[in-house]
């Protein structure tokens, strides 16, 4: 068994009905983990579960709106009921409302921050209770380069993702003594349903590429390796960190 192997581990991946979360769920299952996949749309989850099972993996769908009170306990409880354990949490579910600051309403702000930051925290809290008690856990929070540098894709979004990065550090500080490592991944642009409309605009894509030393838009497969690494024993001494998976965007000064 290599240090990257997740055989015998149980994982939760939120937002796994499509996009990045679906790729991460497939990747963790390929690496041996049993995966609970979470989203609001049951049909999407069934497709993810079938894709995992067709490759010989094990997965269960958990339909939940993570912005609802008690959703985190429900998701964690159903996962432990199914497999008797929980080792890995990938907080991936997220959304954006792209508005200029003058246009942001309280409802807009709450919708973005409730999912991206608040729901991620309460998933960490629910999973962390089990992980700290068993003295083992790996949590990977999907942030964004919008939480690392200023982007014009929305102040609520960027603030929520910066909050995810700081939440990652604080929980790492509190839980590392229990063997629970928490890290974040900050993606630049990837082709998913979340960015589909934006990336149809060729001029916008050219602007992205001009700021990307690697010269290409990310492929969701580029995120699977970093997520597996941070979920594995290979990252046993790494916690509180944020890895920008961005083709060099966040270091591009001039
Ligand atoms: N794509 C990109 O370029 C980038 C994405 N990110 C981040 O990566 C993560 C995934 O993004 P991406 O895959 O592009 O997004 P998508 O919109 O493609 O997928 C989002 C997933 O989250 C689920 N979801 C949305 N709202 C809820 C909710 N209230 N409760 C439970 N699940 C929910 C969706 O399923 P359903 O609607 O059925 O609930 C879906 O499965 C997000 O956190 C995003 O901020 C960061 C940087 C760049
Ligand atoms: C890189 C950002 O996270 C990206 O910006 C957007 O407008 C999308 O919402 C993506 O999340």
TrEMBL record:
- EC category: oxidoreductase
* Pfam families for this protein: adh_short_C2
- Per the record, the domain of life is Bacteria
- Matching InterPro entries: NAD(P)-bd_dom_sf, Sc_DH/Rdtase_CS, SDR, SDR_fam
Q: Which family does it belong to?
A: Belongs to the short-chain dehydrogenases/reductases (SDR) family.
Q: Which PANTHER family match?
A: 3-OXOACYL-(ACYL-CARRIER-PROTEIN) REDUCTASE, 3-OXOACYL-[ACYL-CARRIER-PROTEIN] REDUCTASE FABG
Q: Provide the protein name.
A: Glucose 1-dehydrogenase
* Source organism of this protein record: Brevibacillus choshinensis
